[in-house]
Each structure stands twice: as C-alpha cells, then as structure tokens.
Write a structure and sequence with these properties.
three-stranded antiparallel sheet; Rec A Protein, domain 2; alpha+beta
C-alpha cells in the first residue's frame, strides 16, 4: 500500500483542531444556548476514498492504527464522538479522531463528502476566525466613537428609545450607551440615522409634554384631563409600531406632524 494512503488527515501542527456544529437553534431554550448541550456523531460510516477512488467504511476505534474498517481487526472497541455545546476540540495527540472527522460525510469542510448527506459540522479556520474577530472589534470601535462624539442631546434622545435610564448623569448615560454600542455595534450604528428611531424620539417627547399618551392598546391625544383616541394598537405592539404607523399611513403621518409641531412649540 502506498504511503500516501496511510497519511492521517489534519495533523500538521501541535495545535488543537476545533470542529463546530453548522446549525444553531433558531430559538434557544435558554439565553445563549444556541447549540444542543450534547450532539453525538455515528462512529461508523461509509465514505468515498479519493485516493483509492472507491467507497470504504471508516470506524472510530481508539487505539487502532487506521480509521478504515478493512485495515482494522474484526473486533474493535468503538469510541464516542461527542460535540458539547456545539464544539469538539481534538488535540494533535488524537490523530485517529482527526482523520475520522476529516473524512466524514457530515463534515462540511470535506471536499470529497458523498451526496445525500446533510452537513452537520465544519472545521474552524483560525485565520478566518481572527479576521472575523478583528472585524467585530472595528465595528465596536466605530460604534464607541459615535457614542463619544455624538451631541449629548441627540445621544440622550437615542438612549431613551433604547431604554437607557436618562435620569442618570451624563457620564452614566454615555457609559450605558457604550455598553449598548459594544453589544450590538451594527444595530446601534444603523439606529442612529434610522427614521423609525427618530420618530420614536419625537413620540417620546410628545408623551413627556403630555401631548399624547401611549396606554394599553391605544394611542390617545391628551386634552386637559380628557383623552381622545388616535389609533388602537394591536396586541403585543408598542412604540415601534406607532412610529411605523406614522410613516406608512396617511392619517398617521398627519398625526405625527401635529405632534412634532406641538413639541417644537413647547420646547422652544
């Protein structure tokens, strides 16, 4: 047998190799639980051998010299292949498991995987991960700079929409906004110039000046001690829905202009 046929895949350094499940849970049962706590792979499967150009059976049998069934004893002790919280880390000292995962049809990174198999996991590329992390840090830096450079009145208005406590001092408000910016930099930056966010700020001003009231399932005009219905609000909706209504509905647009005019008059 040629030496190339026995070469173990993935063993080119002393660094561990990380494999990650491809699919996340769309709605994690627990916050941050995007992968099942335990995911087992079959320890035996038929794969395509690109060297021999034929189908062969591989088995993960710790202690054996090869992953190929036809190169193992008839009776072997098969090992478990378990992803914990979506990840399995394989040390270079376990070349057999590295080879098995490299040849698996469930490995999205395997160029020779057979058709009909759904990708379950992929090998993480440390260089790609590094680039991704750098991109994240750059976005966080941009969002952080936006917080520090933004006019405080604008920052405070944005903070109110994001649910930040604006009764605190200026430094605390900027601190809390920096945390928001770092947690979701892309969303934070998009919201700065989002017309829906801008409208929410005006609506909140209208509520502060007691021009309107957002109560329960309705938006109301406040006229002294009396209320006048502007529009009913669907169940489960709130301020963002009202802002969109003022943009997408002719009556809503007229209501918004009236609120905006009264806010300017009271704030001047």
């Amino acid at each position: 047998m040629r030496e190339k046929e026995n070469t173990l895949i993935g063993v080119d350094s002393n660094k561990p190799t990380v494999f990650k499940l491809v699919k996340k849970n769309a709605k994690p049962a627990l916050q941050g639980r995007y992968y099942p706590s335990i995911k087992r792979l079959p320890h035996e499967e038929t794969i395509y051998d690109p060297i021999k150009k034929s189908n062969r059976i591989i088995r993960y049998a710790p202690g054996e010299q090869s992953v190929y069934k036809d190169e193992q004893p008839e009776k072997v002790v098969l090992g478990d292949i378990v992803f914990q919280n979506g990840t399995i880390v394989v040390q270079y000292t376990n070349p057999l498991l590295l080879t098995y995962l490299g040849l698996s049809n469930y490995n999205q990174s395997n160029p020779s995987r057979m058709r009909g198999f759904k990708a379950v996991f992929s090998e993480l590329d440390p260089e790609d991960d590094a680039h991704a992390q750098i991109d994240i840090e750059i976005e966080q830096l941009k969002a952080g700079n936006a917080v520090l450079q933004m006019d405080f009145s604008e920052l405070k208005a944005y903070a109110r929409v994001l649910g930040v406590n604006i009764s605190n001092g200026a430094d605390m408000i900027r601190h809390d906004m920096l945390k928001k910016a770092k947690a979701s930099p892309a969303m934070f930056m998009a919201g700065i110039d989002d017309p829906i966010i801008k409208r929410q700020q005006v609506l909140l001003d209208g509520m502060s000046y007691k021009i309107i009231e957002l109560s329960g399932r309705s938006l109301n005009w406040l006229i002294g001690d009396k209320k006048s219905l502007i529009v009913p609000i669907p169940i489960g909706q709130g301020l963002p829905w009202v802002a969109e209504w003022t943009m997408n509905d002719k009556d809503g647009e007229e209501v918004f202009r009236e609120i905006e005019k009264k806010v300017k008059a009271l704030s001047s």
